[in-house]
């Protein structure tokens, strides 16, 4: 059984035209029709990614589950390749099973084109991943880009050459000249190819050997210099290559000479300060913002006040790409440009210092997010940490390969609010377990990592593994007098008791946690979990008034601090309490309120719980067909988590009762049809429908 609704694809919109490449596109499409593994190879800057994306967009309608882009350039660790694929699909990272097993099961009956972009630096891991997924999923095809083949059985390799250039007489294909003119016109409106500049433009393209990235860099300069003068300067650059940039030219990656020339020439056209900032910003992975640049890259040579103008200069020279987002302005670099900057950073002797500053910045960011999470800024922190995911990974990898002062443990633990609420539990577990294995000396920092690791496992429905970490945390906390860790460990034991159905133990632990709670100390996760645990037991034992009282106290505390994530869980538990009293309309109102928040924060467990409650309320109200659809949509989410209802007996029982009532009302065949329709509906679409209080509103068609 697959896990999730039909995937519509995630290909980014095209922002520039694709010049030429008709023959290559036709060959890619033919190869993908005949073979399931196709790799586009070629030198850096030849346009492999651009070509793969256009080909995928053209082929996407032929795949029932669309085409999915997985960008790998920002990864430093091969073990994260499966997680990046899961994130792109998107497949919630909330199961303790190996991610490759989850991916294989998810893809086994899907018809999907997977685009693995920039594989060369993780070639072995990409090859192993592709090999395993192709064996597990007969409907899967993979289109990869890499500077060298993956070596997968039956792989078809298509070498991408530079664009055709005119011959010295002006004859032949003009693709390179067309690209140069189009890109120049973007920054110099009205620019066209004329009889007066045609020969110089053709000469420039020949000198750059038709390499698209080199041509685009040259286009940025045509605003300032005529093509003839540009050619002369470029000729000088070729002559100087061996003397001025020997270290860069001899280093990996083995760039095409024209690209080395164009990038090195752009480097020379930068001011000394811009060159230094180019090198320093190469330390970032993925995208980054002005604040990060100012803190990581500035010093007496590059004062913070100068950074905005220097960044504007790099954008103007097409070194850095400006990318406005919903959360503010961010920058990114093309991989080849970043690699060049990284080589210069090493040549300057600054690489390790910049990596440390990068780590320190993101450690401070994580500390701030940790301190602020149980407050009014959860949505902005959710957006910020998602935008910084690549940089957080890079910082964690540096901490693990350069251990110092418990930084790996501290960073991995401080990001608990990213691992759990934002949907990356399995990745968090991966980093926490690595950090715990590396840093074994008992400490307060290690204690925190222990209970956070326990949390990631509990919320994945694995109380046995979670208890092992919680027990170690409790023991060391007693030795060190670490009260905060002792309370957190107790909350984890309470969670394990709840999952196992030991209501008496769960209630005793919850009461004990609440007995030592002091409201003046603000919100703490153990206390909030204790409130939920207490209300769950009261509802299960029929003491609904006590459950409601506990939840009202929790809501009042959350509202006082502007907290929404745990407040939404309180609404969900209140919905379950209302459901137990037969107050179905009230249950649906509370569940919808929670679902709206959980959807905004990408909290899959909260989403699945809310859909379950809505299904149960609909079924109890005689709305069997909507109940079956919601059960199907909820199952889509639970399948990505790994253990439906986290295995909590009371939740499992409620879901089973819901299904029995719905089947009895409309029959097995109609139930299965409605359930399948919900299961195959896109999650966002299905949630919007579930938020509609009108049960008779038109249901979206399943997405195939």
For the sheet with most strands, the description reads: 5 strands, parallel
Strand content: 5-15%
Biggest sheet strand order reads 2-3-4-1-5
What is the H level of CATH, i.e. the homologous superfamily of the largest domain? P-loop containing nucleotide triphosphate hydrolases
What integer is the average pLDDT?
89
**In angstroms, what is the radius of gyration?**
28 Å
Gross morphology is: globular
User: How much helix, percentage-wise, in residues?
Assistant: 55-70%
CATH topology of the largest domain: Rossmann fold
Give start-end ranges of low-pLDDT stretches: 1-5, 238-254
Summarize this entry quickly.
It comes from Nonomuraea rubra. Helix content is 63%, strand content 5%.
Key descriptive features of the protein:
704 residues; Arc Repressor Mutant, subunit A; five-stranded parallel beta sheet; 5 domains; mainly alpha; 5% strand; globular; three-stranded antiparallel beta sheet; 34 helices; single chain; Putative ATPase; Rossmann fold
Please characterize this protein's 3D structure:
Strand 7 (321-325) and strand 8 (328-332) form a beta hairpin. The strands form two sheets. A five-stranded parallel beta sheet has the order 2-3-4-1-5, with helices on both faces. It starts with 21 loop residues before the first helix and ends in a 14-residue tail after the last helix. The protein is globular and about 90 Å long. The chain is mainly α. Helix 21 runs antiparallel to helix 22 (444-458) and helix 29 runs antiparallel to helix 30. It folds into five domains: 22-159, 3-Layer(aba) Sandwich (Rossmann fold); 175-254; 270-349, Winged helix-like DNA-binding domain superfamily/Winged helix DNA-binding domain (Arc Repressor Mutant, subunit A, Orthogonal Bundle); 450-467 and 476-554, Serine Threonine Protein Phosphatase 5, Tetratricopeptide repeat, CATH 1.25.40; 580-690, no CATH class. This is Putative ATPase.
